[in-house]
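On clarity, I found the account of how folds are encoded harder to follow than it need be. Since the whole study asks how a given chain folds, the encoding of that fold should be made plain. For illustration, here is how one protein appears when written out as sequence plus structure tokens:
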Amino acid sequence: QVQLVESGGGSVQTGGSLKLSCAGSGRTFSPYAMAWFRRAPGKEREFVISITWSGEITYGTNSMKGRFTISKDNAKNTVYLQMNSLKPEDTAVYYCTSRRALGAAWEYWGQGTQVTVSS
């Protein structure tokens, strides 16, 4: 059984930074890509950013480029989301997910970690 465990959420003021981590485990854990999504209160789930195990990065929106970066440690089966210049509209629960192939569904999900940005 694959498990994804996020950590690193918290509360910051506008302009602050946070780094989220997502560790994958399980005998069958062999992702093609991992990603971060977020869900803000009263809104639909939103794609934030993804990275393939070979290092290709895809951003969700232009507002995230330059502020959010994703990296990975293959040896630790861990991806990181570095968020800088945070804004109140970044407040959301952030979820880590993985998929096994290009175009496949995002199959496994973490429990989510809360990020709150105050003005």
Observations:
- Residues 93 and 114 are 4 Å apart (CA to CA).
- The chain has no helices and eleven strands.
- The mean pLDDT is 95.
- The radius of gyration is 14 Å.
